[in-house]
Design a protein that fits this description.
The complex is a heterodimer. By secondary structure, chain A is an all-alpha fold. Chain A contains 13 helices and one strand; from the N terminus they run H-H-H-H-H-H-H-H-H-H-H-H-E-H. The chains are: A mainly alpha, B mainly alpha.
């Protein structure tokens, strides 16, 4: 009875994903240990649907006026999740992750009801523990990150905002350091990748004081070196996560220094957008021929379909809406009835 | 760092992947080739979004301060500058870079902002002001075909959708009908595109827009008090067609559209029609669980067919 794939099985599952292998491909069947997984897209959809199902199941228990319905629902959902993993051998399918997380969170809510909602720090630590258990059980990097963020919430409300921020940056730096290790399990690598990208953002958010828009010392002291190290290590280790961490850190820095020049917001957006466009265009041209193996061309065998869809959505999202003159006689849709362009400002 | 080099070597030795593919994959796993293409594209998108937002805010903030002709001319000049590099690359029959692609997108977005501002300022089209969206749709479509750009095609389709648009107070049924008609228009465009043997990569863009709009329209119809039955019929038909299309072409995303949108539509409909909270919750639970099982089965079928 296996509770999760072995490191070798997990590596072969990752291979199957990279090579877009079919379920019945002999080489995958022989090596993946019978574990069933799905694409990231399908995993997200199944996770959401299963989470909704978990919520509805809990609601049914409540509407039936079952005593201690949260504990009962937690038991049922947890049992189903474990059955899906142990008997049906689902791994990273979204369904079992949502059900188990829902079960653990229901336990937290049950405890919270008992102790009262005023114990903020305790509740946040319980949430962190639930997320950590789910993260370790399913090797889910998102749960691990959310657990760390929940701990930072507890520190922020239990100690101070600065302490919460320092904790987040400390986790990010530790994850960056551990990333140098070679892990057999791809899941460990993914956990560290998520932490190096997400924790600096969480740490930065904790430094924000909405009343004071001047640049603060702590984010500058933490983000500048972190961004620099992330970029250098990202290039050296060939890590997309570290380069993403560099980009988000630069984004946070840009936001922190937004009032430095005294320019209006629209001018800043256009100027800095133009600068980034020019720099990236030049970088792309420079890296068209690989420099020390780094290239701006797509890697061979890279699956672009998800990114292409994101680009289509992104282009549609930034298309300006029409300006609707409320005084004019409104006729649209190319005829006498029906709608016209979307109203609103740019 | 994770490296699947041993696994690739094993598959190569077993003859599962050929020499060329193995060499390429091994080079990537060893870090001999490291592509930052996606990172650069994300940065380019962020830059374009920032500039577009800045342009919009500048236009809005200076409506009373800058002469309209000056502003229109300045934006037109900026757009022309953005188009220059991609047009030059096209004329030289050179491959357009990602930066060129996003510069072209920026030019298209500035044109949209410029024409929208001009129409707002001068009311050239009078009561038919929204026709400027149709003009933009046609202009961007011509540009997309001339310069072979999916991003600009997305802008064109978004302008078309905006032209069909949502009228305030029109009600869900009318909104739903408009979205369905818009989806049908896009699908007809896609069919004409396919029959004329035009660019293959545009077809998916048409299909994504048409599928999403059609489902939104069907769900809107389901939720409105009028046209509910038509909405349910449309939803079912769309689910069948989209899922079948996804299975036949091996594209999982269309299977996801078919299952997810139908589950959402049915769950919302059940919540509206069934008065008893317990019964509606149980019905919704059955619907969602059914959707999960269906999605799983269809996924397994896709994987089996991929073998």
């Amino acid at each position: 009875m296996a509770f999760r794939p072995t490191p070798d099985e997990e590596r072969w599952i990752a291979m199957g994903s990279r090579l877009k292998a079919g379920a019945a491909d002999p080489w995958l069947v022989e090596r993946a240990g019978g574990w069933k997984t799905v694409s990231t897209r399908m995993r997200c959809v199944l996770f959401v649907l299963a989470a909704v199902a978990a919520g509805l199941a809990t609601a049914v228990c409540d509407l039936l006026h079952i005593p201690a319905y949260m504990w009962l629902a937690a038991l049922i959902l947890g049992a189903v999740a474990e059955w899906l993993v142990i008997k049906r051998r689902l791994y990273g399918a979204g369904i079992e992750e949502a059900l188990e997380l829902a079960a653990l969170l229901l336990i937290v809510f049950g405890i919270t009801e008992s102790i009262g909602y005023s114990h903020d720090v305790v509740i946040e630590l319980l949430m962190a523990a639930a997320l950590l258990v789910a993260g370790i059980r399913f090797l889910n990097p998102l749960f691990i990150v959310l657990s760390a963020v929940a701990v930072s919430f507890a520190i922020r409300y239990g100690v101070s905002q600065t302490a919460g921020s320092v904790f987040c940056f400390a986790v990010a730096i530790l994850a960056l350091g551990f990333g140098a290790q070679q892990f057999r399990r791809p899941a460990y690598e993914r956990m560290l990748d998520f932490l190096v990208v997400a924790m600096p953002v969480a740490g930065y958010i904790w430094t924000q004081s909405f009343a004071d828009t001047r640049p603060q010392a702590l984010p500058l002291v933490m983000l500048f070196p972190y961004a620099t190290v992330a970029l250098l290590f990202g290039i050296g280790r060939r890590s997309h996560a570290l380069i993403a961490a560099f980009m988000v850190s630069v984004g946070c820095l840009a936001y922190e220094l937004r009032n430095l020049t005294g320019l209006t917001l629209e001018v800043r957006l256009m100027v800095w957008g133009g600068v980034v466009l020019a720099v990236v265009a030049e970088l792309e041209r420079y890296l068209r021929t690989p420099k020390h193996g780094i290239t701006s061309r797509k890697a061979p065998g890279e699956d672009e379909s998800s990114f292409d869809l994101l680009q289509i959505i992104g282009a549609a999202a930034v298309t300006p809406a029409a300006v609707h003159d409320g005084d004019s006689q409104f006729k649209g849709g190319g005829g006498r009835s029906g709608g016209g362009g979307a109203s609103g400002a740019y | 760092m994770l490296s699947l080099e041993p696994e690739f070597r094993e598959l190569h030795a077993a003859g599962v992947i050929d020499d060329v593919a193995a060499a390429q994959r091994l080079a990537v796993e060893r870090g001999e080739i490291f592509s930052v293409s996606n990172e650069l594209r994300v940065a380019l998108y962020g830059a374009v979004a920032a500039i577009t937002a800045g342009v919009g805010m500048m236009v809005k903030a200076n409506l009373e301060h800058i002469g309209p002709i000056s502003l229109i001319a300045a934006l037109a000049l900026a757009a022309a500058g953005c188009y220059a590099m991609p047009v030059r690359a096209r004329l030289r029959q050179e491959e357009r870079s990602a930066a060129g692609e996003y510069l072209l997108l920026l030019g298209a977005l500035i044109v949209s902002a410029d024409l929208g501002y001009a129409e707002y300022q001068f009311h050239w089209l009078g009561p038919h002001w929204s026709a400027h969206l149709l003009i933009l749709c046609v202009f961007h479509a011509l540009t997309a075909y001339a310069l072979d750009s999916r991003l600009v095609l997305s802008v064109s389709l978004t302008s078309l959708v905006a032209w069909f648009g949502v009228e305030e107070g029109g009600g869900l049924a009318r909104t739903g009908m408009r979205e369905l008609i818009c989806a049908a228009t896009i699908y007809a465009w896609r069919e004409a595109h396919r029959r004329l043997g035009a660019v293959q990569q545009f077809q998916e863009t048409f299909e994504h827009f048409a599928a999403n709009l059609a489902f939104w329209g069907a769900i809107a119809l389901c939720l409105g008090s009028e046209g509910r039955i038509a909405g349910v019929v449309c939803l079912a038909a769309l689910a069948f067609v989209t899922i079948r299309n996804g299975l036949q072409s091996g594209r999982e995303i269309f299977v996801i559209y078919g299952v997810a949108y139908t589950a959402v539509g049915l769950a919302c409909l059940e919540a509206q029609l069934i008065r008893s909270p317990l019964l509606s919750t149980v019905t919704a639970l059955v619907t969602v669980v059914g959707a999960v099982l269906l999605a799983w089965q269809l996924h397994r079928r896709l994987k089996a067919e991929a073998s």
